[in-house]
Write a structure and sequence with these properties.
Helix content: 25-40%
Distance between the termini: 35 Å
Number of helices: 14
Strand content: 15-25%
Radius of gyration: 23 Å
Largest sheet: 10 strands, mixed
Structural class: alpha+beta
Length: 532
């Protein structure tokens, strides 16, 4: 991580979270043969969680993936790898996703009802809920928080504005969301950053103080090092069983496993194949399986090699993900070029691009005949695992006639600056990490022409139209059809390269119970307890 986090504005701070897996993306997938069609573990809790009668007391120590710099939801991605769990502990969420019922359930909200014409959603708030400063969490506070979130361009704010016509307080406890078009998975927005309601008193000029209605309050925040929270006795759903939470920084995943095994910490967020597999055998926890957890980024802006669709196609046809799997992941990756693999709800009947070096050479030769010199700059992070990935890509591309130069940034933060701000790359890599729960969020962010997180230089009215079909699909069949059509268009345009899916595992001590997962690996601790 950068030693100068204040250089990042809101957009780059959100983009950083989208790239958090970069430093270790070469080893984020769990063990399986790359050609296997066996489904991974479904997202959800693994291990026994029947702890009996809750007992009070104790502070849970959690070694996260990327210790937070800020608890402002507009500056920190509301996802598990980036600070979503920390922020949910302070702010709570209006809605949560229930993995048992596979539906969105009220959390901080009392209810959320869709209108018969599917063009509005009415949110009813619980009575008597207050922020930790004692002020009421009412409809006005919800609207103000969402407006602030959109104005400051928090994650998914462009998508919100794309489909939400208005957000209006009707009385003290009712908020009405009027849509431009039907969107049946709209509740997911209120389970992410839009649903993390900050108190009106949080923003005083340029100064932000994390004041929410969640079960914990902030004791101390040492950015990128440690966050200490204490239980809030007046939490709306009853005082938490735990006394507090402590989020700590531990470099490396094996040290996290060791600390968890010897009782130095109580929880650890893991992405590395070896540690994920070891932790699943030894500890209960939450498994989060996502699509497009490893992608090749191609810059198709004017003046870049990728502006020529023949070059993009040649790159796609030249790279064999099985080679990447063997050379970079020791054969343990969930590799493949399908956007959504066979285990996913959104897997369709159109396969991704398969390697064909003969066709790749022919396309590259045609581009060279028209003046392209074959040169390509691949940008990565100066990290051993990701260097191995860069070398594997370079070898395959050079084998068909490209001349690939490798350039490395000193940190993930510098990588994000170069990709998301400067757009100074021909080719790179990243992670879209798309959940089956609501794939439209990350698809829109990564591919829509208007999205500031679309760093590909790819602007396609056809893709924008398909994204709208995904968003407004009346049922799963229609959504799957639109996503399958997206796969066909990706095969034709090749705006990015699908290299594989992945798993993350949050492991915890066997004496911890009552932890409740929601979207994107975020965990809720309002009912958590430990038996000592």
């Amino acid at each position: 991580m950068s030693k100068h986090p204040r250089r990042l504005g809101p957009t780059l701070a959100i983009a950083l979270a989208a790239a958090l897996a970069l430093a270790g993306c070469a080893s984020t997938e769990s063990s399986r043969d790359s050609g296997s069609t066996a489904a991974p573990a479904a997202s959800g809790i693994l291990g026994n969680q029947d702890g009996g009668t809750p007992v009070p007391g104790g502070t849970v120590s959690f070694a996260t993936y990327a210790p937070v710099v800020s608890l402002d939801p507009t500056r920190t991605q509301p996802a598990a790898a980036a600070g979503g769990t920390e922020m949910a502990a302070v702010y709570d969420v209006l809605m949560r996703y229930d993995f048992g019922s596979k539906s969105f359930e009220p959390q901080l909200a009392q209810s959320l009802e869709e209108s018969s014409d599917h063009l509005s959603w009415t949110l009813q708030l619980r009575d008597g809920v207050t922020f930790s400063d004692g002020t009421p969490l009412d409809a006005g506070a919800v609207v103000a928080s969402i407006e602030r979130y959109n104005q400051r361009r928090g994650a998914n704010s462009q998508l919100y504005r794309h489909l939400v016509q208005s957000t209006v307080a009707q009385g003290p406890s009712t908020v009405v969301f009027t849509l431009k078009r039907p969107w049946r998975t709209f509740p997911v927005m209120l389970a992410y950053g839009h649903g993390m309601i900050v108190a009106p008193s949080s923003q005083q000029g340029d100064r932000f103080t994390p004041i929410g209605a969640g079960p914990f309050t902030v004791v101390k925040l040492a950015p990128q090092q440690e966050l200490e929270l204490k239980a809030r006795p007046d939490y709306w759903n009853g005082a938490p069983h735990l006394d507090g939470l402590k989020f700590v920084a531990i470099a490396g995943e094996q040290p996290k496993i060791d600390a968890l095994a010897n009782g130095g910490i109580d929880m650890a967020y893991l992405r590395n194949a070896e540690t994920v597999n070891a932790a699943k055998e030894a500890f209960p926890g939450f498994i989060d399986t996502t699509s497009l957890s490893m992608v090749g980024q191609l810059n198709s802006a004017p003046g870049r090699p990728g502006a020529d669709p023949r070059v993009r196609q040649a790159i796609a046809l030249a790279i064999d993900t099985d080679v990447i799997n063997q050379r970079v992941r020791g054969g343990e990756g969930m590799t493949g070029t399908d956007m959504f693999q066979s285990w996913s709800l959104w897997h369709g009947d159109v396969a991704g691009t398969r390697p064909d070096t003969t066709a790749a050479e022919a396309l590259l030769d045609k581009a060279k005949a028209d003046g392209y010199n074959g040169k390509l700059t691949y940008v990565g992070v100066n990290d051993p695992d990701t260097q191995n990935l860069a070398l594997a890509v370079q070898a395959q591309l050079n084998a068909i006639g490209f001349d690939v130069a490798l350039e490395y940034t000193s940190s993930v933060t510098d990588m994000v600056q170069r990709l998301y701000a400067d757009r100074d790359f021909d080719m790179s890599y990243g992670a879209y990490s798309i959940s089956d729960v609501a794939p439209e969020l990350r698809l829109f962010s990564s591919l829509h022409s208007t999205s500031t997180n679309n760093i590909l230089g790819y602007k396609s009215p056809e893709m924008d139209g398909l994204l709208d079909k995904v968003l407004t699909a009346p049922d799963d069949t229609a959504k799957r059809k639109a996503i399958t059509d997206m796969q066909s268009l990706v095969n034709t345009d090749q705006p990015f390269l699908a290299w594989g899916a992945g798993e993350a595992y949050t492991a915890w001590s066997p004496n911890l119970f009552g932890i409740n997962p929601t979207v994107d690996g975020t965990l809720l601790f309002d009912k958590a307890f430990e038996k000592r």
